[in-house]
Amino acid sequence: MLELISNIIAHLRHPQAKRYLVPRILSYNLIQGFWTNVSFLHKTANKKDIYKTYDEYFTNAALNFLEKKKDEKKYEKNKFHCATCENKMSTVSEAFDLTWLQRIGVDAARKSSHYWDHQRDIFICPVCNLVYSCLPFGFRIVKGKGFFINNNRSVDELISVNSVSLGDGQQEVTRDELESMAYYKIIDFMVNQTESRKDLEIENIQIVKYDRDMESRPYTYNILSRHKLMLIDECKKEFQHLVGKFAKLDDEYISLYQEVINRLYKGQSFTDLIYRLIRQVIDGKYNNITNIYYILKISNHQYKGGVHFMQTEELNKVRSYGFYLKKAYASQETKLNGISYRLLNALKVKNPSKFMETLLQAYSYKKMEIPSIFVQILNDERKFETIGYAFLLGLHGYEGNTDKEEIKHG
Ligand SMILES: [Zn+2]
Questions:
Q1: How far apart are the CA of 137 and the centre of ligand 1, in A?
Q2: Could you report the per-residue pLDDT of 114-169, keeping only the tens digit for each?
Q3: Residue 89 CA to ligand 1 centre (angstroms)
Q4: Which residue range or ranges hold the CRISPR-associated protein CXXC-CXXC domain (predicted)?
């Protein structure tokens, strides 16, 4: 067996092995997610030279086209326009379509009704075809999931923000880590170009996410605006803490980082996520209160500068009130859980008076005075949610979890 293995290793070390085996593996593991059925991925091409088949389909067609274009008089007469650039083709057979790109183009062979009068009239030129073949290399991918940051002010900038390191092969980098690194790279890049963070001029940046497992729609398109990027910057500690953190919701493990980032992109509120996580906590199925508190802080931070915003000290204070009430109910777990459920339900249906009523009962039962901060929940729905969830986190924190953050007595 050893002899066999050393033989195999010797073969793999052969320069030709690297030249042919690596691209073959890449073509199946990576490129196939983007292209289909052309060039070296064509059904009949699996035994052919991978470099030759690439050249035949992509490079040669582009070179021939550019050569023919030099004859200006003849080129002027070309009638078929490329859909993405200014090139013109003389015949349809000289043009390409986008059907070979997975889930991007229209498969004209299967469905021609996308086109006017069933006539295919969207063509691209051989040069654009060659450029599109590089699509797999624009994405940073870990285990079939990745992204491309279309920061296209300049080619240098585009390359720079997308060149986040996939690691040195020793330690595995996760998709969350990669994405997080990329955002801070964008921010650093921009900060280096201005005097201060406040003067940052950020145009909207398109972020294309790719997920091989989403077969019908592997690409999702998001826009990173100045406001969203600033939030990611200002809540750096919270976002970085969420990288690589998972929770089980509806029998499915979800990445908290991705959940928060996706909500941020879509401009959605975070409270449904916070609600579901706290629900898990009360049911004894989840115990990382710190993760939830960080999501709550990001949620609160969206309102920075506005009326709904709460200072971190205030938030901590509310959480500590929850903690003290919990201590008062130390030996009455069932009662405490009953209170939690009622508070949580009041939050879910956005009913501040119901919340207040439960709170008053809970405090008066222990002959404790209700803190005045709770008055705020009655006239501001956003504050109601922030205060309510912070209080619930206090009510369920600091027992059997790894939260090292000191609670400030207030
Ligand atoms: Zn073109």
A1: 19
A2: 555 555 567 899 999 999 999 888 888 888 888 898 888 788 888 888 887 766 66
A3: 9
A4: 76-139
